[in-house]
Amino acid sequence: MSRPQIIVNVTAALQRRGAPTDTGTAFLVYAGATGPATPTKCLSAADATAASVPTTQAAWVGDLLTQGAHEVWVLRAAAVDAAAVTEAEWDTALAKLTEDYGPGQVIIPGVSSSGAHVALLTHAAATRRCVLLDGAKTASASTLTTAAAGLASGDGAERAGLIAPWVTVPG
Known about the structure:
With 171 residues, this protein is of the alpha/beta class. The chain has five helices and six strands. It has a six-stranded mixed beta sheet with strand order 2-3-1-4-5-6, sandwiched between helices. The chain starts with 24 loop residues before the first strand and ends in an 8-residue tail after the last strand.
């Protein structure tokens, strides 16, 4: 009776074409009275504060860097009313984040308006960046499902994720 043999063939893995894509860049857009109206690179929360970014958004910059982003580009949307930014005002701000800044993830944290979502999707389609859409903090699962289904048909939706609810995990 013969014994079974194990034959192992070792071959090199296929090489990737081109250089790897670095996606460790975050683009944070916000509406406020102070801060940079042109994209400004921040490597720390202190950099954001020095650029006159409001405290809440500067803390988000620090959080992004702590969570793995190697750089954050911050940009203020020049809005008539910072509490009610229109889709056109978001579009104008996002248009300043040209493809020259490279790949990454784009966020408008804390804003769950349809205008912000559509502007982010339009930006994703134009630049091939990923966008994270903020869901309303108090929205139910069915409301979020309906919102996601409505956004799924838009240009850029294949590069978008609807995130909700946000959870703070202690260190």
